Amino acid sequence: MSLIFLLACLPPAQRDSWEILALLGNGQLFEARFTKGDTGLLKGQGHLRVNRWIHRTTPMSFHLDTPPSVSLLNDTEANFFTHRFYKENDIWNLQMRSEEFNASVYLRPLASETILEQDDRWTVQVEPHLDAVGWTTAEERSALLQGSAAIFKRGGHSLLQSERYVFIGFDSENYWGAEWSNQISFSWGSIDQVAYRDSDIEVQNHGHSVEIITAVQRVNFYPEKKIGEDNQYKHLSWLEKNLSQPFVSTENRTLFNGYFVLESQSKENTLPGVLIYHGENPPRIRRAKPKK
Q1: Confidence (pTM)
Q2: pLDDT of the residue at 281
Q3: Distance, CA of 64 to CA of 278 (rounded, Å)
Q4: What is the spatial distance between Cα 51 and Cα 247, in angstroms, rounded to a whole number?
Q5: In angstroms, rounded to a whole number, what is the distance separating the alpha carbons of residues 87 and 104?
Q6: What is each CA distance from 46 to 67, 133, 188, 231, in whole angstroms?
Q7: Is 31:17 a contact under the CB 8 Å cutoff?
Q8: Neighbours of 97 (CB within 10 A)
Q9: How confident is the model at residue 94 (pLDDT cuts 50, 70, 90)?
Q10: Which residues touch 12 (CB under 8 Å, ≥6 apart)?
Q11: What is the distance between the alpha carbons of residues 180 and 230, in angstroms, rounded to a whole number?
């Protein structure tokens, strides 16, 4: 098993993915991720991971691995067996049908720009602000879905080898986001109709907050609730994880609800948002002082 895993991860490993992150009005987070690799013994296999994270509740989840013959992923769509993500008449569609999990989600772009950040090994394209509406069902659980979303298209030969921070925040008119890792680092946003974009950012974890420093902004994220945690490599043994560490990070992903405080040009804005942290040192929730 160790040999199979390492052969599948050894560079150069072309990996491509589509990811939806939707912050819902009730504080929940919906994520859907289609991933496909083109190197190693798992060449061409599709991996679909869908979670609707709910604070202090078991998430509505669906995980599926598909053979290469029914795993299509390119620059315009993803189609894994009967589960599709595609664009039609300027609206992004997520359609999933199975006995275990069903979803129908429509994402309408609210921002005219598409963010592109790339180097010779890794590319990230972001649709930064979309209106998300739809529904999800998992066995006997069903729920409407409504909120704001971002869509990420990632691809290249780079492997995640250390921490990664992904931030998104929205209100009715504004949005802000950032990604920081060994693969790529950049930020984007529109606050009071002023666009912000930076390809050189710094992230500092202060324990109960995370500071993001850009050329023109100082942003702090304050986590309020831990809404989920998972590990895409949890099926590996302790030995296998140790053997893989020189090539790829196998640490947990931890998801937080919270809010951003954005400071720029002597002005301060606050946005609700989420942090998806991959690594071994996630931020901490500040405990409320007991009432006297």
Answers
A1: 0.90
A2: 94
A3: 21
A4: 26
A5: 13
A6: 6, 26, 29, 18
A7: no
A8: 12
A9: very high
A10: 39, 157
A11: 19
Six-digit token string for 94: 């997520």
Q: Is 53 left (phi over 0), alpha (psi -120 to 50) or beta?
A: beta
> What pLDDT sits at residue 11?
47
Q: Which residue type, as a one-letter code, is found at position 180?
A: W
Q: Which CA distances in Å does 11 have to 25, 101, 121?
A: 40, 34, 11
In whole angstroms, what is the distance from residue 98 CA to residue 100 CA? Answer: 5
Write out the two tokens for 160. 């995640």
Distance of alpha carbon 181 from alpha carbon 203, whole angstroms: 9
How many CA atoms, within 13 angstroms, populate the side-chain half-sphere of residue 242? 3
The distance between the two most distant Cα atoms of the chain, rounded to a whole number of Å, is: 64
DSSP string, 131-175: EEEEEEEETTEEEEEEEEEEEEEEEES----S-EEEEEEE-SS-E
CB 176 within 8 A of CB 270: no
Mean pLDDT lowest among 17-21, 222-226, 246-250: 246-250
Distance between CA atoms of residues 162 and 280, nearest Å: 9
Runs of H (alpha helix) within 170-276: 238-244
More confident call, 35 vs 3? 35
How far, in Å, CA of 214 to CA of 27, rounded? 27
Beta 185-191 vs 175-181: how paired, if at all? antiparallel
CB 197 within 8 A of CB 115: yes
**Scanning the structure block, which residue is given the tokens 């560490």?**
245
